Amino acid sequence: MNARIVSVSEGPRLARSIAVGPHTLAADEPQPISTDTGPTPGELLLAALGSCTSMIVRATADRHDWPLDQVDVAVQFDPQGQIVKNIRLTGDLEPVHIKQLLAAAGRCPVHRLLTREATIVTVPTVLARPRESHSQTLPK
Description:
Elements: E1 6-10, E2 16-20, E3 23-27, H1 41-64, E4 68-77, E5 83-91, H2 95-105, H3 109-114
Antiparallel strand pairs: 1-2, 2-3, 4-5
Helix pairs in contact: 1-2
């Protein structure tokens, strides 16, 4: 996976500015909870899965010189909270190509990350306000 740091800064209400290298994205929640200035964090997760899936399908077809004209991926949460990924392949593809492209779609790094148990390590940093004389420490 990518080694660039993703940093998130607060904006008005729940809006967030996301920096990834030279790129800036937005995240927010819809009204009335916030100001709807960007996709929700869950939608960004779905976008990561959909774009990763599309990329690996395209790369696989190109590597094998298969006639894939277009790959489109639509991703959503169903009412039970499951992720549903619809993949539309356009081109004069043989059934064996379709089978292999769909298998590749399940091997994209984001798909693999979401379908296995991931470890998340939280590293807290607490800064005391300059006007405060005592420092804050976190319990171990």
